[in-house]
Amino acid sequence: MASPQMVMYEEEFAQVQAVTDRLVQDANARVVFVVDKNGQLISASGDTGDIDTTSLASLAAGNIAATGGIAQLLREQEFATQYHEGVRQNVHIQVISSRVILVVIFDNRTSLGLVRLRVKRANAQLTQIFEMVMAKAQDPFQNSPFAEITDDDIDNLFND
Amino acid sequence: MSFINYLSREINCKIVYYGPGLCGKTTNLQHIYNRTNPDAKGKMISLATETERTLFFDFLPLEIGEIRGFKTRFHLYTVPGQVFYDASRKLILKGVDGVVFVADSQMLRAEANIESMDNLRTNLAEQGYNLDTLPYVIQYNKRDMPNISPVDELRHLLNTGSVPEFNAVATTGEGVFETLKSVAKLVLTELKRGAAR
Question: Is A104 in a helix, a strand, or coil?
Fold first, then answer.
């Protein structure tokens, strides 16, 4: 495989969630998402009620992939920060350690400046956590849930 | 690249439908979307042009059941088939766990099939993947059209590695779920093998 599988264990997941929960509060944001660059949602904090989180994760990753493609054409390393301004809501997107994407959705209860400032701190904390996650994923002695799965388990999934 | 979340007990995998323009990749996804229980699927997203040609990708999240207490989800993507969208195709292949190559059975599209297959190999190689070692199946679509190539000929041209292959008419749904099940099974088997290494 080209890149190692990402496995989130409870410990790291709780750490990520703590960072994003705090970011929602400190930045006075509506919602904060952490998304894998391949489009998988990792965690969500705040008022996610009416948001289709799976679609949002996939589109945010597509967006970052497309701007990454533009960066490559311009011989830039990447555009690590993006900002989309709407009438009622705005979206701030930050690539963390070239691996995951931090999406902050906010409205006029806060300001872009405050969001940027708080994202900067969260960026440093998340970088540390995801470095640990990736180091664990590369550890050959780490258990994967697939190690215990049998061929029968897989067959059973597809029995009509 | 699959993603395993221990807290929510989920396994997420990515499958990409690849193939020449107008071969029926989006139609495959639409059929799956229409025929799946609402509880098992998310919204289908199509980033398409005004003439309904795929511009960036189609996306459909699908839950197929539980393995040992882990919800197993597949994220299905299509690529834009038209030749000039190559940059987008490369992006969508990132992190892929399994590929479905949808071939257009019409004789006139033989060259487009081969070109798209070569393009798939090249783009995968750029991402560090090898099509011969990736979970991968082929679908010969549009079997209901006039002037189609015999399956033997398509196999000879496209399926040199003897991967699982399926005849399909995506507009009616024939062969669509068989193709999906086959690639999904290959992906899970590969993940299991990877874990045992």
Answer: strand
Q: Which domains does chain A have, with CATH numbers?
A: 10-157 (3.30.450.30)
Is A43 in a helix, a strand, or coil? strand
Separation in Å, CA A63 to CA A56, A82, A119, A136, B47? 10, 10, 19, 28, 12
Contact B195 A65 (CB under 8 A): no
Separation of alpha carbons B19 and B23, rounded Å: 6
Can you count the helices (H) and strands (E) in chain A? 4, 6
Q: Which neighbouring-strand residues pair with A83?
A: A92
Q: What is chain B's percent helix, strand, coil content, to nearest 5? A: 35, 30, 30
Of chain A, the percentage scoring pLDDT greater than 90 comes to 62
pLDDT band of A110, cuts 50, 70, 90? very high
Contacts with A, B 151-180, CB within 8 Å:
none
CATH number at residue B57: 3.40.50.300
* Domain total in chain B: 1
d(CA A67, CA A69): 5
Sheet strands (E) in B113-160 = 136-141
Q: Which of A36, A41, A52, A54 is the best mutation test for B, with the most CBs of B within 10 A? A: A54
Tell me the residue range of the domain where B106 lies: 3-196
Record the pTM.
Answer: 0.90
Q: How confident is the model at residue A1 (pLDDT cuts 50, 70, 90)?
A: very low
